[in-house]
Specification:
Number of domains: 1
Strand content: 15-25%
CATH architecture: 3-Layer(aba) Sandwich
CATH topology: Rossmann fold
CATH superfamily: Alpha/Beta hydrolase fold, catalytic domain
Number of helices: 8
Radius of gyration: 20 Å
Strand order of the largest sheet: 1-2-4-3-8-9-11-12
Length: about 325
């Protein structure tokens, strides 16, 4: 159940979302993650003063998501409500550069440490280890902005990105609030059977008995098979357990699910994470939007969902003490 005052506030805010386009400025930025260039878009409220410190929000996409789509849809609404917002593409996704794998054995580096190689670009990988690093790089970038209040850094993640931001929220002390919508928390991935499968795959990859990075293998199955370009590597998920990380979260959290989510059991994912956080005495707001499937948060309920998130962030991030 949604608290009535919170719901009314959210619905009132939704009336203002349509005017977002006129109230923000946007510029392209480059973020380095392990030396790889990631493409980002930085959104700021129009008219921000040179000495003004703003609460910040880093947006983290879901499966196949990009700043050009998820960011362009979502970021302007947060920016027009007073937030500095960074949307970015993970390494090898969207407009970001790729990691490279050398095709042939490398020659010895020259005096400058340089080599000439033939390489293959690593694209569209669901690589938990790399993408956690990418999010930390994005946080590091935004705290370096002159208008950023490094004491008011928030994370927003959707779907696959919802699990990523949950892990970061439990492990990165710079984060002061987290929003995870329709999050995939990897329920069952930490079980003994799943871990054995991942370790067996890791052994084959290390011995060259299968692709070290999935290009031909690793296609997503079931309802996610529509993301034909994506590849999953379970071996890179070892140690990435968002539900375990949820037990370490000490900051306010907002989790939102779709009642008819067709991609996951919400009780075992977002609902379970909310239970874990609440059990530790940490403030958590959990909402289930009725009558929609997973993608309804981007479509018919986008206005309502975004308004609820803005209202919550205004209370738990924007009104936090500003840096001096």
């Amino acid at each position: 159940m949604k608290p009535l005052p919170f719901l009314i506030l959210g619905l009132l805010l939704s009336l203002n979302l349509k005017s977002a386009a006129a109230d923000f400025e946007k510029r392209s930025v480059t973020i380095f993650s392990d030396g790889v260039r990631m493409a980002g878009d930085l959104y700021t409220p129009k008219g921000t003063k040179a000495d003004e410190k703003l609460p910040c929000l880093v947006l983290c996409c879901g499966t196949g998501g990009t700043k050009a789509r998820t960011g362009n849809q979502t970021a302007p609404h947060f920016a027009q409500n007073g937030y500095m917002v960074l949307a970015f593409d993970y390494r090898g996704w969207g407009q970001s550069d790729s990691k490279l794998i050398t095709v042939d054995p490398q020659s010895r580096p020259d005096a400058k440490g340089e080599v000439q190689v033939k390489a293959r670009a690593v694209r569209w990988q669901m690589d938990y280890a790399d993408q956690l690093g990418d999010i930390r790089a994005a946080i590091s970038f935004i705290v370096g902005e002159p208008n950023a209040d490094r004491d008011r850094i928030g994370l927003w993640g959707t779907s696959y990105g919802g699990g990523l931001v949950t892990w970061i929220a439990g492990n990165d002390p710079r984060v002061r609030a987290v929003v995870a919508q329709v999050p995939g928390m990897g329920a069952g991935r930490s079980g003994a059977k799943a871990q054995k499968t991942a370790y067996d795959l890791l052994t084959k990859q290390a011995r060259g008995e299968t692709e070290a990075v999935p290009f031909e293998t690793g296609q997503l199955g079931g309802k996610l098979s529509a993301y034909a370009q994506m590849r999953s590597n379970p071996a890179k998920g070892l140690g990435f357990y968002p539900l375990e990380a949820a037990a370490k979260i000490k900051i306010p959290a907002f989790i939102l699910d779709a009642s008819d989510d067709e991609l996951m059991n919400i009780k075992d994912n977002g609902g379970k994470a909310a239970e874990i956080i609440k059990a530790n005495g940490v403030e958590v707001e959990y909402h289930v939007i009725p009558g929609i499937t997973h993608y309804g948060v981007y479509k018919e309920k986008f206005q309502e969902v975004t308004a609820l998130e803005i209202a919550w962030l205004d209370q738990h991030l924007k009104k936090a003490p500003a840096a001096k």
